[in-house]
């Protein structure tokens, strides 16, 4: 029995400490995921907290088959979509995000590259963007991604390949890719 299995069993028995422990295990991952979908850290934290509130609220609908992480990611994805519809700006420009730092500033190039990457990833169609974020932003396996998005493994592989081709073209246009 895994630690997750044990905690799920304890939650089913009504142990509130098990809920707290499960949140501690998954909160950093879910927050990192929400950071990809939110325009700022504060809104990402709100989305992550809302994800766990919903997970607890709807826990009685969850049937544990060893895929609790996928359950959480599905809730997080829906929460981010809902919050974006309600509050977040649907799009932001790289120019608006890039502050006027001197190029000699320590870490400027890394920040500049990360902002460009986020902007390029955000331009991908929703289905491709989600797979890229789960694979590279969350470091999940293709099998885990297939469980989260509810698609066959081959479809996930195909969409990831398509997304990577699009990203490569964008990086080539932006001068960040060297062949």
UniProtKB/TrEMBL annotation:
The keyword Kinase does not apply. Keywords: DNA-binding, Sigma factor, Transcription, Transcription regulation. The keyword Transcription applies. Residues 22-88, 123-169 form the RNA polymerase sigma-70 region domain. Pfam families: Sigma70_r2, Sigma70_r4. It comes from the Bacteria. NCBIfam families: sigma70-ECF (TIGR02937). This is RNA polymerase sigma factor. It comes from Faecalicatena faecalis.
